Amino acid sequence: MNELTGACVFAQSGGPTAVINASALGVIRTALDTGCITRVLGAAYGIKGVLDDKLYDMGSEETDELELLRNTPASALGSCRYKLANPEADATDYNRILEIFKKYNVRYFFYNGGNDSMDTCNKISKFMQTAGYECRVIGVPKTIDNDLYGTDHCPGFGSAAKYIATSCAEMWHDAHVYDTGMITVVEIMGRHAGWLAGSAALAGLTGCGPDLIYLPETDFDMDRFVQDVSDIYEKTGKCIVAVSEGIHYADGRFVSEAEVSATDGFGHAQLGGLASKLAHIVKMKTGAKVRGIELSLLQRCSSHTASLTDVNEAFQAGKTAVEAAVAGATDKMVAFRCTRGADGYRCETVLEPLEIVANVEKKVPREWINAAGNGVEQPFIDYVLPLIQGEAKVPMEMSLPRFARLKKVLATP
Amino acid sequence: MNELTGACVFAQSGGPTAVINASALGVIRTALDTGCITRVLGAAYGIKGVLDDKLYDMGSEETDELELLRNTPASALGSCRYKLANPEADATDYNRILEIFKKYNVRYFFYNGGNDSMDTCNKISKFMQTAGYECRVIGVPKTIDNDLYGTDHCPGFGSAAKYIATSCAEMWHDAHVYDTGMITVVEIMGRHAGWLAGSAALAGLTGCGPDLIYLPETDFDMDRFVQDVSDIYEKTGKCIVAVSEGIHYADGRFVSEAEVSATDGFGHAQLGGLASKLAHIVKMKTGAKVRGIELSLLQRCSSHTASLTDVNEAFQAGKTAVEAAVAGATDKMVAFRCTRGADGYRCETVLEPLEIVANVEKKVPREWINAAGNGVEQPFIDYVLPLIQGEAKVPMEMSLPRFARLKKVLATP
């Protein structure tokens, strides 16, 4: 038995998701219940909390209140977007982290984040090894964009997909209330990968999906887009289009940054988002009544449409991280290995080496997008559908969501 | 007993809500189960369906499918925004309606809509009386804006309020993820009345509400607004502001139409909505990181945050309309009379004369808004809170909402 006794630090990183705190609970609850982990410290605002020596004593929190983390959206301990330099270039932050780890006898570090965070984990772990300080480092995956390499999918994605599909189905109904023509452009998150935009297609399973979906994995062609939309609009008087915020031209320019309004020939940057810009262009060319809708940040913080599958898997990912580290693992990311066979969807947590996963983006396979580049194919549907299953029930108070209210007591050594 | 045998026509009008089809079910189900109503006809796209002789035979629908209307958002029979002229000015449409009513022996007309629709009901009823054609006309109230006079509140409002409060609570969490400064401006529906914008305050009951709320019942002052926001931002580094889309200057101009971007000195109309315009202005003056969010049409079609109280009341309003008409009532609107006393919230359906309710807008009482005009007082909270109670459970299929799929069989006489 490879028993290592000491404190653990848990930190959240990067953008929030609807289930990021379910992972936090998985780590915190499991760590609090583990004998060899002497203290559970939560970093205030991610890795900055470690650098600033601002660590919360998670043992001070009420059990019932911690449990509410399960359905609380958006990084409850706070987060930051801070990418550590290469230690060879500048070891300042690493030395500081080591100093803090020594101060609190931290022997376990759990970092919950996306690509950049797995890179950070990797660098920290290597540094600790070089410094001869024993510390087990495990990354817990997270991102609504679903672009982490090495795992079937990421916690956070299933709930965002469920939000998008549900909202699209509702908006479809709204769009069909009047018998007058209407073109709706819906902007969905996802700067580099189209996992989220593609999820709009799930609404099509109940007959209420968008007519066209544009993902960033294919080059965007404005003329082709307008033609696609016009063709459908001519036939039915309606068209609903989902676009990823990351759609770009063949030369790489993001459409959202490249486009100026046809009415503003001076090249002044528009305040409107991508959806309203595209809606405007379509209006100029077709004369149709149009509207642009930005799904906005509710895609990543809507706990009321969280997928129960996602919540449970996010929790499990955190739990597995702690159990694996206590059993001796380090330099790993918890990943999901899944099958979608005749006996249904199965998901198990495994460990992947951090070097493999860090800094590689996983995009939607080209063959999962249709030839025309304006829709997704059945394999995409088969892949996403199991991830949105089940409705997570948010505890309510006065019929308003009852989210976790942590005391956040700062620890002293 | 005042028994009147004949067909009934039910039509939906104006903008949709999350519970408009619960009212439809209340009318349709009750009418189908009533012996003296020989046939239940649903107008395709509102009053236009009557004018175009496009009426669906609701008796052709499956009972189970009709039941799904209860949780299906957005006018399932279709709607239109068509205001009939005064019959003295132009009786064409009225003559046509009478012709259609005679063709199908329609003796009951139920019209589900807001202000304009109650006016339409009134005009149609008077015309039928003048023409000597017996037809009982009852209006069923509807609007997310909650501005119908003569009723405690309107079906549709409670669910929209619940959506807004829930979303604001979630966005509050998202806004507090990073320790860097952030000002969030949230745009909420409501062109003339601030019932919806004020509902954002409910999120404050759980400590996650906006700092400032601006309703259209008070005049907007841009300098005062920027000062209010800056003051809070200076103190805490965060500020969340909710604004009604209908905020206007003292001279009556809507802020959304009056404002041009500070970067665009040429007066070119911006594509961005009110939220992004205000966010931009605040950014110019404070240098803060800002974001503008439009809650958009999900406020009116989000079935997944529908209030069970609202669903039940909407259904009851439809049911009462039919029962009252069969018992002899006409020229009435179903209204809610409510008490919020020591024994809790009570709501009963009553009948109000159509003349009283038509064309009068009910706004938020000035004394329910704070003196500074940037928040609401306790009476507002006490008024709205009972309306959002209970979570309506939407039937799911593959964990996607299972909405009603009507056959929509056109009737022949």
Describe it for me?
The structure is a homodimer of 413-residue chains. The model of chain A is unreliable at 261-271 (pLDDT under 50). Chain A is 34% helix and 19% strand. Chain A has two domains: 6-144 and 303-360 and 390-401, Rossmann fold, CATH 3.40.50.450; 157-300, Rossmann fold (3-Layer(aba) Sandwich), CATH 3.40.50. The radius of gyration of chain A is 23 Å and the shape is elongated. With 413 residues, chain A is α/β, with parallel strands linked by helices. The first copy, chain A, has helices spanning 20-32, 47-51, 63-67, 92-104, 115-130, 157-175, 195-199, 222-236, 255-258, 274-286, 298-301, 308-326, 354-357, 378-384; strands at 6-12, 37-43, 55-57, 106-113, 136-141, 182-188, 212-214, 238-244, 290-294, 332-341, 344-353, 396-397, 400-401. In chain A, strand 4 (106-113), helix 5 and strand 5 form a beta-alpha-beta unit. In chain A, helix 1 (20-32) runs parallel beside helix 12. The interface between A and B is large, with 73 and 73 residues.
Key terms for this structure?
homodimer; 413 residues; alpha/beta; Rossmann fold; seven-stranded mixed beta sheet; four-stranded parallel beta sheet; 34% helix
Write the layout of secondary structure elements.
2 copies of one chain form a homodimer.
Chain A: E1 6-12, H1 20-32, E2 37-43, H2 47-51, E3 55-57, H3 63-67, H4 92-104, E4 106-113, H5 115-130, E5 136-141, H6 157-175, E6 182-188, H7 195-199, E7 212-214, H8 222-236, E8 238-244, H9 255-258, H10 274-286, E9 290-294, H11 298-301, H12 308-326, E10 332-341, E11 344-353, H13 354-357, H14 378-384, E12 396-397, E13 400-401
Helix pairs in contact in A: 1-12
